[in-house]
């Protein structure tokens, strides 16, 4: 799964004239996955948006959807801030993050006109 995401990103970046090694991209995603899993209890992680759909440009951010068992009473904005602090030195691209409990994501993804449904159907699941 990570290799698939890395290959999509790599092929698009090479088309844009950037030179980057596939292993570097894979390593970044592996670090990202491990950090989210170990420090934030991520049960599922999706990449969505331009990087997942093969359309990134030099200004594209990485769109992440992080699904946890429970938010443990924390506000989503606080979890997102914690994740950003952890990832800032791991990932060179800007990152946009969505956080959901498993129940919340499943409920919203079940509705065909939601962003969560699009993430589930078209995003790249890199963990879970």
Helix and strand layout, with pairings?
Layout: H1 2-15, H2 22-40, E1 42-48, H3 50-53, E2 62-68, H4 76-87, E3 95-101, H5 102-109, H6 115-122, E4 124-127
Parallel strand pairs: 2-3
Antiparallel strand pairs: 1-2, 1-4
Q: What would the keywords be for this entry?
A:
51% helix; Beta Polymerase, domain 2; alpha+beta; 6 helices; 4-stranded mixed sheet; 128 residues
Please explain how this structure is put together.
The chain is built from six helices and four strands; from the N terminus they run H-H-E-H-E-H-E-H-H-E. With 128 residues, the chain is of the alpha+beta class. It has one domain: Beta Polymerase, domain 2 (2-Layer Sandwich), CATH 3.30.460.10. Helix 4 (76-87) links the parallel strand 2 and strand 3. Helix 1 (2-15) crosses helix 2, helix 2 crosses helix 4 and helix 5 (102-109) packs across helix 6 (115-122). The radius of gyration is 14 Å and the shape is globular. Mean pLDDT is 81; it is low at 10-22.
Report on the biggest sheet.
4 strands, mixed
Overall geometric form: globular
Question: What is the CATH homologous superfamily assignment?
Answer: Beta Polymerase, domain 2
Q: Could you tell me how far the N terminus lies from the C terminus, measured between alpha carbons in angstroms?
A: 10 Å
User: What is the count of DSSP helices, taking H or I runs of 4+ residues?
Assistant: 6
| Rg for CA atoms | 14 Å
Binned, the helix content reads 40-55%
Instruction: List the uncertain runs.
Output: 10-22
Total E-strand runs: 4
**CATH topology call:** Beta Polymerase, domain 2
Strand-and-helix sequence, N→C? HHEHEHEHHE
pLDDT averaged residue by residue: 81
**Structural class computed from helices and strand pairing:** alpha+beta
Class, according to the CATH hierarchy? Alpha Beta
């Amino acid at each position: 799964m990570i290799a698939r995401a890395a290959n999509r990103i790599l092929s698009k970046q090479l088309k844009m004239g950037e030179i980057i090694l596939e292993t570097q991209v894979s390593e970044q995603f592996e670090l990202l996955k491990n950090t989210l899993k170990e420090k934030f209890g991520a049960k599922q992680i999706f990449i969505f948006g331009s990087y997942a759909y093969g359309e990134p440009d030099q200004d594209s951010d990485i769109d992440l959807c992080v699904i946890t068992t429970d938010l443990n009473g924390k506000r989503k904005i606080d979890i997102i801030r914690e994740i950003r602090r952890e990832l800032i030195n791991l990932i060179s691209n800007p990152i946009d993050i969505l956080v959901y409990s498993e129940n919340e994501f499943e409920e919203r993804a079940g509705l065909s006109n939601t962003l969560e449904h699009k993430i589930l159907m078209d995003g790249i699941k890199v963990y879970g």
